[in-house]
Structure formats: C-alpha cells, structure tokens
Fold this protein.
Amino acid sequence: MTDYNLVYLLDGKVYINLTNRCTNDCVFCIRSIKDDVVGANLFLNTENVKAEDVIKQLESFKDKLSEEIIFCGYGEPMLKLDVLKQVAQYIKEKYPKTIIRVNTNGHANIVYKRNVLPELKGLVDKFSISLNGENEEVYNTVSQPHIDNAYKAVKDFIKESAAEGFDTTATIVTGYKDYKINMTKCMEITKELGAKFRERPWIENGY
Ligand code: SF4
C-alpha cells in the first residue's frame, strides 16, 4: 500500500487510521458525511491493513513521533486489535516518551468476548471513549449500534479502563444538528464510572 491514508496529521498531531469498519453507525460520523478529514482521504482501499504498512507511513512523520499519537480514523480502531498492539509496541520501543491514545466506541470487550484491557497495558496510555448519551435510548438514537446492549458495554468499558489505571475520558459530541444530549447527566454518569469527561463539539472538517 502506498497511499498515505493509514497515517494523517490533524492539528499537528499524528493520527492512525486502521479500518473503515465500525460496530456503530453514528448520525454524526464523518464517514457518511464526507470523504476527508481536513484534506486527508481516510477511505482505505483494503481492510487487510498490516502493522508494517502503518509503521512505514508513520516513519514519514518522524519529527512528530515523540508527541502524542492517536488511533482514530474512519472506523473503530479496536476492531484491528492485533495491528493496533503491534504498532503501539513499535512506537513504545522506538519512541518511549510518546503518549498513545485510542479513541474508541468502547465495544471491544463485547466484540472479543473477553476483557482486552489488560493486554493493552504498557502499550496504550489513554482511552477516549464515546459515551454519546445519558441513557440507552439516546445512545441508540445517536450511535445506531450493530450490537446488542451496546450502551451497557460502553459504560462497562469506561469503568474497567479507569479501574485498570488507563487515563480514561468519556466523550460526548455536541452541536450536531438538533440532537440534544443531557450533559449534566452524562457528567454524573462519567464521574460514577471513575473517568474524566470531555465535550467534543462537532466540527465539519474533522473529528
Ligand atoms: S464510533 Fe466513530 S467511526 Fe464508528 S460510526 Fe461512530 S463516529 Fe463513526
């Protein structure tokens, strides 16, 4: 693969785009709205993404690799768990000061039918997890998940991530059309789960 769409820059930070697949179909997902994030076309021409392809593209951003690197693209990065682990391992060995963040929908433990978080210790520093709503009804309206009990899975993942010692932030996207989210309730839920909270205003040109 020669296209530089496995790795891209957003606000001066390096992002890794491992897949176009997702277990959600969020109403605000930029995948279904446009085909680029601030000019980077993130549609992959194959789902057969290999760690070596990602690493090759990463190295072309050499001067940025000792800062924070984020797994986040047009799809759910944890669906490519093995590739994510291999790439994170490479980054941690070669650039030990680099912080690694994964932006995720929090479905991984349901998808893999096991708690994958212990496998990511020492590889991932931060999880940013899409809470997306104050209850299951709102969550399902906004996220349109393809799996059952997704909202519970997300809350469990947030709680487990915080308990395992990852720097954990639950996020809410606001400002998309007239979708209303109860921020106060979301903040309360997040606090109970032991995580930090962040509102991500929806922006037209990127996440
Ligand atoms: S979780 Fe992310 S990639 Fe998946 S549909 Fe929602 S916004 Fe898109």
User: Anything to note?
Assistant: The CA atoms of residues 135 and 151 lie 7 Å apart. The helical segments are 51-58, 81-94, 108-111, 136-143, 150-163, 183-193. The chain has a mean pLDDT of 93. The chain has one domain: 7-201.
